[in-house]
Each structure stands twice: as structure tokens, then as C-alpha cells.
Amino acid sequence: MPSIVVGKEHVGLRLDKYLSEVTNKTRSYIKENLIYLKVNQKEVKLSYIVLLDDKIDFEFKKEEVLNLKPENLNLEIVYEDSDLAVINKPKGLVVHPAPGHYNDTLVSGIMYQIKDLSAINGVIRPGIVHRLDKDTSGLIVIAKNDKAHLNLANQLKEHIMYREYHAITIGQIAEDKGKIVAPIGRDKQERTKMAVVSDGKPAITHFEVIKRFKNNTYIRCILETGRTHQIRVHLAYIKKPILGDPLYGPKKVYGNIGQYLHAKKITFRHPTTNELMTFEVDLPDYFKNELNNLSL
């Protein structure tokens, strides 16, 4: 059963909002699926206001077990210990199962290669602390137990985890570096897309130009927040969409690779030892080839 202690950054939140933030689940999900809840060994309501050092024990009802089969996808495990693993996800691989796509996912691959996975996100997302889009390659952290999962999820929430992405944009970016501050939410017209909307969640992306080409810019992006499709939405918002992006780029999509976006570097505190850990992977070959082919 998961157990967590409230830190000073969460003091004053309603209990349902606090649980939503540390588990990455909606408040409605929590209300419908919570089967056990105590604070300091006492029963409370979800409207309870959390205090510093409150010890919260909770449990969700088990999700319907799907027939997910471990598959040998020969994933590149960059690092692994008893608490976590760091995977270099290839482009084209969906992170977790979804209706109509239950096989050939990162989840089925890690189920084959990694013995223990956290259960915080249920049976279809075991171990998944954060996600990458199907056509985004690079580093993703996997939790092997619930304690590690909650700690890593909190680092994401408190912006302790550093995530650096590299991207190729359409068009030249004039500024050498900058910050995009624009709230992101569901697109009002196309529900399959995200967009910059006035009532969206706060979103901040830092960027820095690495190299300019005739019609493109090679940049690094650092996430201060972690909204769905954040980098893709923010770059499209400033009229510099990611090259090859079929959802946020031009209607005539460049090539058939998908967006040129790679999660290159990640830094976080180890959930048990508190050691600062940094991992970095090289650009994949398709990305390097495109950089070599662009005109200066």
C-alpha cells in the first residue's frame, strides 16, 4: 500500500488535489477508485487540508487486468537498480497500451526485461512515471516500486527533475535563447490536439539555439513544466513548429519520420539515496542524418 509524507510545498492543499498531484491521476479518478485512505492512521475526507509531515496511506481498487504480454523489444536500458531504470526509447514506440493498441509498447518491452515495476499507475502503465510521444525518442525513467514512483513523480511536479530535449524547427529562430510562457490545454476545435488556451495549465519551455540553417534551427529545449505535447505546442505557438510534426506542423508534412524531437538528457535525485544522477544519450542516426543534410 502506498504511503507518503506531506512536504512543505504541498501544505494547505485539499487531500484530493494533493493525491492528484503526486499520483498523476484526476480528482474524479481518485474519488471513484479510492478504497483506502487514512491520514496519520485516522480516517478523513477528501476535503481534508493537508499539513506538514502528515503521513498519508492510500490504495486504489485494482484495475481490470488486461491480457498484456511481455515482449522482447530489445530495449536499451541505460541504467538500472532496485528502484528505477532509465530507458532510451526509440522513435515509433508507443509508451503504454491504449484502446486498439495493446501490443508492441514500451510497457510490454519493460515487462519482459525488468522484473519489478511500480503499480501506482495501474496495470496498463506499470512503472510509467512520465511519458514520451510515440515519435519522440530518448530518455524515460521507469519506477520499479511505489515508493520510488511517488518520489520521482514529486520531483517532476516540483521541477527538480531536469529534462533536456533537442529539436529541429521549421524556420530560423532569431533569438539565441528564450523562454516560452503560455498555458496549455485541450484544443477547443480539435480534441485530439493540445493548444495554447487562456484557461490552460501553466507551461514554461526554455530554448537555446545550437545551430542555424537556411530554413531550419537546431535547438535544445528545457522543460520547466511537463504538459502534454508541451514542446511541440509551444514551438508551433511561436510559428516555429518542429520539423516533421504531423499534428502541429504544416499540412504538408515533411518526410515520413515524424517530429524531430529527442529527449537527450535527464537529471534527478535518486529516490532512495538522494544522489544527483545525470544521464545523456546521443542523437539517433535519423536525426544526425537530417542535420547533415540541411542547408546552411
Topology:
Layout: E1 3-5, H1 15-23, H2 27-33, E2 34-39, E3 42-43, E4 55-60, E5 76-80, E6 84-89, H3 106-113, E7 137-143, H4 146-157, E8 162-170, E9 177-181, E10 184-186, E11 194-196, E12 204-212, E13 216-223, H5 230-237, E14 261-269, E15 276-280, H6 285-293
Parallel strand pairs: 7-14
Antiparallel strand pairs: 1-4, 2-3, 2-4, 5-6, 6-7, 8-13, 8-14, 9-12, 10-11, 12-13, 14-15
Q: What features would you highlight for this structure?
A:
296 residues, alpha+beta, Structural Genomics Hypothetical 15.5 Kd Protein In mrcA-pckA Intergenic Region, Chain A, Pseudouridine synthase, 3 domains, nine-stranded mixed sheet, four-stranded antiparallel sheet, 6 helices, 15 strands, 18% helix, 29% strand, globular
